[in-house]
Design goal:
Length: about 250
């Protein structure tokens, strides 16, 4: 029963994507909505990213210093390890898990509200591909802006580690800066950016799917938002494992 339900949902999701991804009927309207979604989903999330990244970078530096007390370990290992954690996992995977709660629930609740108030039905009656009109700008907008958010997260997190070194002196600033430059592997940055594209697609498409197929009233909209966030997080973790195995093998 569970397998049948899962397969039905997956098939419905694929059909939804087939309807959503296509050539817009009116490019002027699409571009306007696309730019609005970039601002709403991406730029409006920057304050949250700055706050979270600043504290995570500081915490990483403190915890790594506390757990590296071996005198045989070089002091610059604090900066090096902080950089690796931020580049490989936090700036892409953990950030997208955090953003899925904000962005995913926003997308699902917005589209779900339009469904229960019959605005989507009105678009269909007018002959407009409602899935394409409503969802594709959100999907493309988030995919476009997510790598920029990841870069902001990287820089802010590393600055958070720098700031905690200045304020507390747990590691000298020179040692920390030397550590984040030592044995730098450029591919790790590209790895994080590539992962962010997959995660952006997962968050936007799954959230739009749950919102688009809401049945009922406002209570169901809330349930759809919750389900969208939960499923997005699960799929982000699954895809993260697969991409890490494939791209860092």
């Amino acid at each position: 029963m569970l397998i049948t339900k899962t397969l039905n949902s997956f098939g419905e999701y694929c059909m939804f994507l087939w309807r959503s991804i296509g050539v817009p009927e009116k490019w002027r309207v699409f571009i306007k909505r696309y730019l609005d979604e970039i601002a709403k989903l991406g730029i409006d999330s920057i304050p949250l990213i700055l706050i979270v990244s600043l504290f995570i970078g500081s915490l990483c530096t403190i915890l790594i210093k506390l757990n590296i007390n071996n005198p045989l370990m070089p002091r610059y290992a604090v900066g090096l390890t902080t950089r690796e954690i931020i580049l490989l996992e936090f700036s892409s995977s953990i950030l997208c898990l955090i953003l899925s709660g904000k962005i995913g629930s926003n997308i699902a609740s917005e589209i779900g509200t339009m469904r229960v108030t019959e605005q989507i039905d009105a678009l269909d009656i007018m002959g407009i591909n409602s899935a394409n009109f409503l969802c594709m700008p959100k999907i493309l907008g988030l995919i476009t802006i997510m790598p920029f958010l990841v870069v902001i997260c990287m820089g802010t997190s590393l600055f958070g580690g720098f700031l905690i070194c200045v304020l507390t002196g747990i590691v000298t600033v020179e040692t920390y800066l030397y550590g984040i430059q030592t044995m730098f592997i450029e591919w790790y940055v590209w790895f994080a950016l590539i992962k962010s594209l997959f995660f952006a697609f997962i968050i936007s498409s799954i959230s739009a799917y749950y919102g688009y197929y809401v049945v009922g009233g406002s209570v169901e909209v809330g349930k759809a938002s919750t389900n969208a966030v939960v499923m997005s997080n699960i799929m982000i973790l699954v895809v993260d494992v697969i991409l890490t195995k494939v791209m860092l093998q």
